[in-house]
Amino acid sequence: MSGITVSVHTADPPECEQWRAQLQSALGDGFRVVTGADPRAHYAVAWAPSAGFFTAQPALRAVFSMAAGVDHLLGIDTLPQMLPIYRLEDAGMGAQMIRYCRHEVEHLLLDRHRYGRQQRDASWHQHPVREPAELTVGLFGYGVLGQRVARALADEGYRVRAFRRRVDQRVHEDITEFAGQAQWPSFLNGLQVLILLAPLTAQTRGIIDGAVFDAMAKNSWLINVGRGALLDEPALLEALGDGRLAGASLDVSAREPLPGDHPFWLHPQIRITPHVAAVTLIGPSARQIAARIAALERGEPVGRSVDRSSGY
Ligand code: NDP
Questions:
Q1: Which of 72, 114, 275, 308 is the catalytic position?
Q2: Which atom of ligand 1 is the closest one to the Cα of 70?
Q3: What is the DSSP letter of 49?
Q4: How far apart are CA 209 and CA 46, in angstroms?
Q5: Which of 114-128, 161-175, 207-221, 225-239 has the lowest mean pLDDT?
Q6: Are 109 and 135 in contact (CB under 8 A)?
Q7: Do the bridges between strand 245-250 and strand 175-179 make them parallel or antiparallel, or are there none, so unpaired?
Q8: Mean pLDDT, the chain, whole residue set
Q9: Is the pTM of this model over 0.90?
Q10: 301 preceded by cis ω (within 30°)?
Q11: What is the DSSP string of 265-312?
Q12: Can you tell me the distance from the alpha carbon of 42 to that of 25, in angstroms, rounded to the nearest whole number?
């Protein structure tokens, strides 16, 4: 195994250098890790590179996303059709995602949204305490991250449902699992919290619309930690206005950064964070990618690559 070149690209040069150093240290001798496109590169590691990144590197054997999602890569029209794409699987994001989602679910459970409103009105009024078992939480997206969040919430006593595309083996006995279009209405019916943790694909774009909010319980809560464009934004505003939803926690938005004049910013029922629910940790991510590159070079299996036809 010698003379394998790996190119790394991020828009921020100091961050790119950190990636390079971490990958080089994890790969060791026999691999050469460089920043920026290199015509000799065998593997590329990137986050949203320009179109020229792929045309400049004709010898690539695979590309690795610096994220769990790949929508930013699949949109690049110079990405070679047959080039395998690998994405980060957890790599330290699962624990962050659990903390983020648990915090937002507890915000609802503990009535913090109502107490926040009451504070502004100087109103001292106690609401009955609720237990996690009184809240039904649904995960749309039950993959690497969705499963971790679902299990964590189930372990805390929430009633948890999860929805995925393909029928698969049962993952967890305490989670009510749904799959496929026919089960979508049963999954949504009466949900008090809906967490979006699915990728953005042709099938999922705009899937969270007014009909979804109609099916959920009144005064429910939406948490979007997947991708902004899963959501029909005007439908969300309508549902917040007419009481179908009590509130929404949005970590992602269709346009990022969220434009300064966007109605979400000042909406009293919306909590916004700037796409930080689970950030890429360079160390664990570089080690995961390096292990896969080394395995590919040894001809060993490295798990599932992205299926271009389903978009994730
Ligand atoms: P996975 O690919 O492991 O899981 C995706 C899940 O979505 C799978 O359960 C899949 O179903 C399901 N899914 C895909 N398409 C559909 C569909 N049409 N209908 C129903 N279910 C569908 O991804 P991860 O768990 O690693 O990540 C999920 C997403 O979270 C990423 O794509 C990214 O967009 C987002 N993310 C956001 C972050 C943030 O900071 N806000 C950080 C990290 C990720 P099946 O199991 O049947 O394949």
A1: 275
A2: 32
A3: -
A4: 32
A5: 161-175
A6: yes
A7: unpaired
A8: 97
A9: yes
A10: no
A11: TT-TTEEE--S-SSPPPHHHHHHHHHHHHHHHHTT----PPP-TTTT-
A12: 18
Q: Is 9 a catalytic residue?
A: no
Query: What's the CA gap between 65 and 86, in Å, rounded?
Result: 6
Residue from 47, 98, 165 whose mutation best tests the ligand 1 pocket (most atoms within 8 A of CB):
165
Task: Confirm or reject: Cβ of 100 under 6 Å from ligand 1.
Answer: no
How far apart (Å, rounded) are the C-alpha atoms in residues 202 and 42? 30
* Active-site annotation holds for 275: yes
Q: How many residues does the chain have?
A: 312
Residue 2 confidence (pLDDT) above 70 = no
SS3 114: helix
CA 1 to chain centre: 35
Q: Is 163 within 8 Å of 142 (Cβ atoms)?
A: yes
- Over residues 75-100, the pLDDT tens digits come to 999 999 999 999 999 999 999 999 99
What is the Å distance from ligand 1's center to 196 Cα?
8
pLDDT (mean) for 40-68: 97
Q: DSSP labels for 140-183? A: E--SHHHHHHHHHHHHTT-EEEEEESS------TTEEEEESGGG
Ligand 1 atom with the smallest distance to the CA of 252 is 41
Strands 85-86, 43-46: pairing kind: unpaired
Using CB atoms within 10 Å of the CB of residue 139, give its burial: 0 to 12 exposed, 13 to 18 middle, 19+ buried. buried
- Write the burial class of residue 93 (CB in 10 Å: 0-12 exposed, 13-18 middle, 19+ buried): buried
Angle at Cα 92 formed by Cα 151 and Cα 253, nearest 5°? 80
Measured from the Cα of 279, ligand 1's closest atom is 40
Question: Would you give the distance in Å from CA 2 to the centre of its chain?
Answer: 35
Distance in Å from the first CA to the final CA of the chain: 30
Cα separation, 136 vs 133, in Å, equals 8
Task: Report d(CA 69, CA 86) in Å as an integer.
Answer: 10
- For residue 231, what is the DSSP state? B
